[in-house]
Sequence to fold (839 residues):
Amino acid sequence: MDFSKENLSKTFPLAAAIVIFFVAAALYFIPQFRGEVLPQHDVIQYEGMTRDINDMRDRTGEDPQWTGGMFGGMPAYLINVEYPAQLVKNYVGKVVRWLDTPAAFLFFAMTAFWIMLLIGGVNPWVGIIPALAYGFSTYFLLIIAAGHVTKMWALVYAPLMMGGAWMTLRKDVRIGAAVTALATALEIGANHPQITYYFLVAMAALWISEAVFAFREKRTGDFVRRTAALAAAGILALGANFAPLWYTAQHSPETIRGGSELAETVETDTRGLDLDYATAWSYGKTETFNLLIPDFMGRDSATTLPADGQTAAELSDIGRSLGAPSLGSWARQLPAYWGTQPYTGGPTYLGAAALFLALLGAFWSQGRNKWWIIAVSLLMILLAWGRNFMGFTELAFKCLPGYNKFRTVSMTLVVVQWAVPLLGAFALMQLWKGGMPRERIRKGIAWAAGITGGLCLLFALAGGSLFDFGRAASADQMSDTFRQVFAANGLQSYIDRGMDAEWGDAVAQAIAADRAGMMQADAWRSLGMILLAAGCVALWAARRIGRGTAVALLAAVMLLDLVPVDRRFLSDENFVSPRRTQVTPSAADRAIMQDTEPGYRVLNLTVSPFNDATTSYFHRSVGGYHGAKLARYQDLIDRYLNDLNPAVLDMLNTRYLIVPGEDGQPRAQRRTSAFGTAWFVDSLAGAASAQEEIDLLEKANLRTTAVVDDRLAEKIEPQAPTPETLASARIGLTEYRPNYLRYEYSAPEKAVAVFSEIYYDKGWTAYVDGQEAPYFRADYVLRAMELPAGEHVVEWRFRAPGWSAVEAVTGLCSGLILLGAVAALIYAFRKKKTPCHEG
Fold:
């Protein structure tokens, strides 16, 4: 092996970058290396969702592909299904397993972004700075704290996917296509389609830009060849994930993402999320400034006003007037956040220094390197505004294929989070290469610092008078609060004198002042970071400091800017002992678990039942937690379950409720009216539409009548059994697994049985004495069968349809990608490559 100085000079920056990323991630998450863990809401919920799936795998070695643990039962395609043929994800994806999360998230995010920059021709030393900016973007720490694991892995792989596309369209098409196929397969395999979708829009912007330049330069033939290679890589990546994509596509129309059958027929397409639901989390136009100033909107929804602020002082003064000196403590209950989102975990702060460098990149970079990035960033900001820019949002819902399947439109800002450090990297490469005219350097620094720093200075000096800070809403709220306090304490005279409105307005002004103070403090902070970054760039450009020193200083500024803000939302204090993250059964859970009869369900009213999966740790839950539950079940929740309709609870075999006891602890309450795991009916009630079906649930006696589609009601006419027949007919569940149900029954004559299991005809197969038998939907969400007289066994088995063929396609495409990656490595080693240059 040649250990020449030349090879060492090439290897050292690569090793140094990896070490820097590891040390930075490890230092941020020091408690992880002490054995502590991060309690993450979505991770805890996910463990509840998958409890019965994992239990069955451990017990039998079989993947059930269905969960019976929540929402009465649902396919596991969007929860947890094993796809052995996903070779790229199952083998190459294991590279990220050598380091545990959460440190792995930051380390691999920075490494992936840095590799993308190397592909784009950025020097490895220079690439460290924007990689740190990407990895420590505040949004990453917010979603790590919340436990959005699949989202985070998708954001780790996205830069590699974009780098592969860049190489395919601009440089070596063979290596580029191999990288694109591998990275895109990992990206899709991360299983967060929304993140992947947004980056595919960014890739489309790159493709359009390259098409324009190819047309201008009269090289359309080469561009077509590169496009074909990129498309082939994309097709292979899709194929490498064909199994999950196939079953997700098959399943999605049945979920809330496919729309409800109860939706009225309108001119627009209803097969997507409701527009109001999808845009609930929309970024305010003004809120966008928190990309530059973290506390611009008052931080997160959980942050309250300071105990020593103007609001506390004003309330204390009012309290003394009323003889209630503790009134000042109210300030600690009032929110600092004044944006329009229902709830936010914090701002999408990109770093003031990073935004300064990005503007430098916009001024200094070639048009081919910047216009498509700027354009897609502006598009994503406009989309993030959602309901605050509804005309544009409605247009996007109509024109962008598949866009109406996603909620939380503010998530589009992840592309801006990627674009800002990328533009900054291009700016720094101009300095690294040298040769740029001094006048251009001077103007670039002046404009970039003037715009970013000027905004910060404006908000720091005059921000308190530029915005309302929610004062009007706060005035109304405080006026109502004072009126209630006065009325409750016999202080009618204060209301008569209008003191409620006067004091309400005074407190609202104090609230606005406290919020303005938070914003102004961070505006000064951001201005300081911009000046530090601008100073480093100016000294580098003037050759007062060397390149290495400049890179080290800018990397330090980036960390100084981002890490303290990140730690406002995720710090060492968030870590706990592993024992504290374990979900343990309550006394109510333990009491219910004494009932070992299979098939009954539990509704937990001590939590938000339809937004919580912890009940599924121990029981088959009527509720659950998932963003893509079956649409018909959601209809049932909206129409009946939210109101605890007894008949609907009975048909779902809800045997137990968990309710708050007198001592505040959960208490088990047994319901004796539940219909059981299955029952015979003596009549069918036909319905002409989904709306009529769901309406009939509160009109029909569901114990003796099954609500079915009109067409079925005409074909099946069960005989009306005599009282003796009803008394002698028996049916019960004798064996239960998530994907297998065994019933034994005895009936004197042919009859229709309703099973308290969720209807899903894309995988469930019914058998009577081992022979496949037809079944149909009843009672809007359940299954039913016409059963022959006598004593028989009914079995239900679930298996993803077409499993062998779908897995074969997945395995073939995965194998081709891996072979292509090996071939690309051999080709790269054989080819004497020159160092990449920004192109």
User: Anything to note?
Assistant: The chain has 30 helices and 16 strands. Residues 678-798 form a domain with the Maltose phosphorylase, domain 3 fold (CATH 2.60.420).
